[in-house]
Amino acid sequence: MEMVLLTALGVGGATLFGSALGFVFRDISHKFSDIVLSFAAGVMLAAAVVGLILPSVELGGGVIVPIVGVFAGAVCLNLLDKLVPHLHRLTGAEQEAHGGHPERLHKVVLFVLAIAIHNLPEGIAAGVGFGTENTAQALTVAGGIALQNIPEGMVIIGPMLAAGISRKRTFLAALATGIVEVAGTLIGYFAVSLSHAVLPFALALAGGTMLYVISDEMIPETHAHGSQRGATYALLAGFCLMLLMDFYI
User: Fold this and answer.
1) What is the pLDDT of residue 85?
2) CA distance 175 to 154
3) What is the 3-class SS of 49-79, one letter each residue?
């Protein structure tokens, strides 16, 4: 349990770390941001497949339950996107931040709220991994999510400051998005701890949510500013790094 709690704090803390970088480096180039986010996407891709979906296949004794779980996870996030669009693109948020003040503030608040809500299933994915009792794989999944949270935390800061929100309130908003991820990690862990019968489905569900985020948000974002080649190699580097860690740890 102590390891799970430390992991939850680490996953949520990664958002705060990214936010701190956002305060220091407010004018980060799209190229650098795309490379970092692509690397994180590669890490998450490997974590989803190696740490969640393949263990789901092994524990479930077949592929039907994992396949259903993957699509269920994707559909859940798809429905969540329709309720609260994930305004994850820095350029779009910055453009909205230069409009009229009431609308500008509304858009930025929606932007942060969307990130907070989307952090919940990511946190759950980190917690579910510990249900396999394979600590190394669980940490791999959590590490991939934490790495993705760093650039996400950086993204929050610029639009909020540009909208006229004070530095203190901006920091508290970033803290809230991190707390959501901590809560999600604990929810995921306790959910699978109550019943190991649901573990194969839960693992695949978590893997499906991660694959959805990678395909629907991270890859399109990193290929939208002319850095496609570098972003592709960064994704491959992140993926291979996770394979090496899974093999040697």
Assistant:
1) 60
2) 12
3) HHHHHHHHHHHHCCCHHHHHHHHHHHHHHHH
The answer to whether residues 69 and 56 touch, using CB atoms and an 8 Å cutoff, is yes
The values of phi and psi at residue 133, to 5°, are: 65, 15
* C-alpha to C-alpha distance for 20 and 12, rounded to whole angstroms: 13
DSSP of 191-245, one letter per residue?
Answer: HHHH-GGGHHHHHHHHHHHHHHHIIIIIHHHHTSSS-HHHHHHHHHHHHHHHHHH
| pTM recorded for the entire structure | 0.76
C-beta of residue 230 within 8 angstroms of C-beta of residue 34: yes
Structure confidence at residue 241 (pLDDT): 87
Which pair of tokens denotes residue 121? 């299933």
User: Using H for helix, E for strand and C for coil, what is the string for 118-165?
Assistant: HHHHHHHHHHHHHHHCCHHHHHHHHHHHHHHHHHHHHHHHHHHHHCCC
Q: Say how far apart CA 3 and CA 6 lie, in whole Å.
A: 5
Instruction: Return the H-helix or E-strand segment holding 171.
Output: helix 167-194
pLDDT digits (tens, 9 = 90+) for 210-237: 899 889 888 888 888 888 999 999 999 9
CA angle at 86 for the pair 81 and 92, rounded to the nearest 5°? 140
Calpha distance 66→146 (Å, rounded): 24
d(CA 49, CA 53): 5
